[in-house]
Amino acid sequence: MRYKERLNKLTTLLQLNGLQAMIIWDNYDLLYFTGVNGPGALIVDTNGETRLYVPPINYEAAERYAFPGLNIEQTRIAEPLEVVVAHSILGFDGAIAVDRMDVEIYKRLANMAPNIEIRPSMSLIWEIRSVKDSQEIGIIHEACRISDRAMLAASDVLCPGITENEVKSEIVSEIYRQMGEKPAFEVIVASADRSSLPHGPLQKADKRDRVINNGDVVVIDLGVMVEGYCSDITRTFIIGKPKDNEFEAIYSSVLNAKDAAQSFMRSGVSCSYVDSVARSILSEKELDKHFIHGLGHGVGLEIHEPPRLAPNSPDQLMEGNVVTCEPGVYFEGLWGVRIEDTVLITDKGVEQLTNYPVDQYIVY
After folding, report:
1. Taking the domain 134-363, which CATH number applies?
2. Which of 65, 81, 186, 259 has its CA 20 to 30 A from that of 359?
3. Average pLDDT of 268-292?
4. Which residues make up the CATH 3.40.350.10 domain(s) of the chain?
5. Total-model pTM
6. Residues 6+ positions from 124 with CB-CB distance below 8 Å
7. Do β-strands 328-331 and 322-325 pair in parallel, antiparallel, or remain unpaired?
8. Gyration radius of the chain over CA positions
9. Within the chain, which residue ranges are assigned CATH 3.90.230.10?
10. Span 229-261, pLDDT tens digits
11. What pLDDT is recorded for position 347?
């Protein structure tokens, strides 16, 4: 990975914003800038010095996975990282940035370094992280390939009499068979009235599972992690003949909304506008009121990252963004439809990275 190039970009942003240094505390940010997952704390200053502090439990991993030449220092057992960080920043005479940090840890750090202005500056990190380089895109491509295979595995076992958890088990097994690191999030298999819940049903003791029956709508949402990077795909299936005669027309409307929105996705287009395109298509069939979430989100080391595709989003698409496009409509207590793909934003449009067929939704 291009860790030094990323750190150089961060150093430039710090200088442009009048910041002396940055404390990188968040595990995802540590992985992005060093190759090491936390716990740890990275201090990046504008003089070009970079120091990674790690507790003993993570020292061997840091030495093994950090990029060559990174200055790694081991803390003492049970020594709080914020104490080490506080001592390391006392020599600065200007404002210092910090990414994401627990409020209580932030307060303790500020109390130990009262003369230092510690400024929350996660936006600087996102300015770099939200645009993926060619290496990141290659890894996400692989995560998307495995996602397609996992969705195929799910569709192959869908039938009356199988349970939601049995389908989940097949999905997770396929992810590992394809050498995926792990699911990017908890797999959703939601059938019948449970499909009207965008994030799937709560796993209550008496309703942890459900047998899938003829006529059921089944929403499957899954993602795969490869080398820390995520993919995201959703497909909606119908088992045999739908109980609601309007299902196929509504499925087509959701698919049309997705296709229309993706046709406007390119570098420089506002995220709120793309969201409005999907809502406009759904409004033609009075379905927009059932579209109860944003059109999509960024994908990378985290399954939800900037930019955010939603009404009133201030974000703008940029070349190198990897985002989802996932319109959905949900009829409370009845059923829902969502179709989602992970796509790469280019200067000319989009490259769709997940490609499980959208026309193979009827399961007999």
Report:
1. 3.90.230.10
2. 186
3. 98
4. 3-129
5. 0.96
6. 10, 13, 14, 17, 22, 97
7. unpaired
8. 23
9. 134-363
10. 999 999 999 999 988 899 999 999 999 999 999
11. 86
